[in-house]
UniProtKB/TrEMBL annotation:
Name of this protein: Enoyl-CoA hydratase
Pfam families in alphabetical order: ECH_1
GO MF annotation: an example: catalytic activity
Coiled-coil zones: none
Source taxon at top rank: Archaea
Family: Belongs to the enoyl-CoA hydratase/isomerase family.
UniProt xrefs under PROSITE patterns: ENOYL_COA_HYDRATASE
Length: 230
């Protein structure tokens, strides 16, 4: 269900279940978590096989869950999203085709979301009597703002790539999102590893600025020779 290929400084992680629009089962979530955790390159490119990015949770699985099992499945999806978000690699979601429900939520956990013109996005759970429970209720407002998050989550409507870009759900539009992953991988890997958590860091402005100063000074010391030559 999860295929991994490493090339140079980018690991390509593919959700490979096209007959189910790459919907994820518990086993699929476990495999995705392992693929992210085992990555040794500075950049990961996450994408889906076939005509969809990811349809989220496999609803055939969800329909058979009891209360305890549903809680565990939500916790599992939340854990995988945290693993993506906290990875020391820069994770680029390469979105082509449909991203739905949990697929949107996994994309929200990535550092960059790069979509093709054919991509579409929807938090469709509310139309099924559900909602996104893989961290979407806190990541979606953070990424697109509370107003847009309310609109998307409460209506369940589908947005295209252009609208997703305007609201900040998409970082960039590209015919080949993997090119953006390679572009990021061309940067200094240590700088990438130190910068990424700073951009995500929560806390007071003073705390964030202190951490920023410390990382900046460490990188200046490390790269002094390169800076002089450049």
């Amino acid at each position: 269900m999860i295929e991994t290929t490493a090339e140079a400084d980018v690991t390509y992680v593919t959700v490979d279940r096209p007959h189910r629009r790459n919907a994820l089962t518990p086993d699929g979530l476990d495999a995705l978590q392992a693929a992210i955790e085992e990555c040794e390159t500075p950049v990961i490119c996450l994408h889906g096989a076939g005509s969809a990015f990811c349809a989220g949770a496999d609803l055939d699985v969800v329909a058979d869950l009891d209360h305890e099992e549903a809680t565990a499945f939500a916790e599992q999806g939340q854990r995988v999203a945290r693993v993506i978000e906290e990875s020391t690699a820069v994770v680029v979601a390469a979105i082509d085709g449909a991203a739905r429900g949990g697929g949107v939520e996994l994309a929200l956990a990535c550092d960059l979301r790069v979509a093709t013109p054919n991509a579409t996005f929807a938090e469709t759970g509310v139309r099924l009597g559900l909602f996104g429970a893989w961290g979407g209720t806190h990541r979606l407002p953070r990424v697109v703002g509370e107003g847009n998050a309310m609109d998307l989550a409460l209506s369940g409507r589908t947005v295209d790539t252009e609208e997703a870009l305007r609201m900040g759900l998409v970082s960039r539009i590209s015919d080949d999102p993997s090119e953006v992953a390679r572009e990021v991988a061309a940067s200094d890997p240590v700088a990438l590893e130190r910068l990424q958590p700073l951009l995500r860091q929560q806390g007071t402005a003073a705390d964030r600025e202190r951490a920023e100063r410390e990382v900046f000074a460490a990188l200046v010391t490390r790269n002094a020779g390169t800076l002089r030559d450049g």
